[in-house]
Amino acid sequence: MSVYIRFIDALRLERSFVLIRFLTRVALVAIALAYVSPYVAGLKFHGDLWGALATSLVFNAAFWGLECLLAVIVFGVNIGTLGLGAILTSMLKFVAALLSPSLALVGAAKMMPGFLQISDYFPGALVGGLMLGGLLWTSVPDKNKG
After folding, report:
1. With b meaning 16 or more CB within 10 Å and e meaning fewer, what string describes 3-38?
2. What is the C-alpha separation between 129 and 102, in angstroms, rounded?
3. I want to staple 108 with a disulfide (CB 3.0 to 4.6 A). Which of 11, 20, 58, 101 is the partner?
């Protein structure tokens, strides 16, 4: 019985860590949108703290959706080719890791045009996405990288 209780306590602790990590990501992206985005050409943020938090939530939701879509595609290619597509999928994961924050930023700009505007994909969305992707990558613990 005590093993079961310890397992339930470990699950609750893991859930609280996941929530804390998610809220930290949202706060980091909100700060980056509010304070760093004016220095990126083609990326304009208009709003206050609440607008930054709302835009950050939309960005993180879009980013999570793109990560899930990529995982399904990679899983399907690996199963469909009996593992021989691992070279192709590793290249796909690398390119998607660079481009998915930019696509999530474009999605957030389309969903919330009152707060976030992107004039062009190349300087605005790509550089802003790389900035936010690097920020999110540095916020991941070392054991989950790679």
Report:
1. eeeeeeeeeeeeeeeeeeeeeebbebbbebbbeebe
2. 4
3. 58
Separation of alpha carbons 30 and 37, rounded Å: 10
Residue with tokens 């595609």: 73
CA atoms within 13 A on the CB side of 142: 0
Q: What is the average pLDDT score of the chain?
A: 82
Distance CA 72, CA 134 (A): 23
Length of the chain: 146
Cα 49 from Cα 27, distance rounded (Å): 10
Give 29-48 pLDDT, tens digit per residue.
899 888 888 888 888 898 88
Distances (CA, A) of 44 to 6, 22, 33, 106, 113: 49, 24, 9, 12, 10
**Each residue's pLDDT tens digit, 78-103:** 888 887 878 878 888 888 888 889 99
Q: The pTM is what?
A: 0.81
Number of DSSP helices (H) and strands (E) in the chain, helices first: 4, 2
Beta bridge mates, 43: 118
Q: Note the helical H segments in 36-85.
A: 49-80
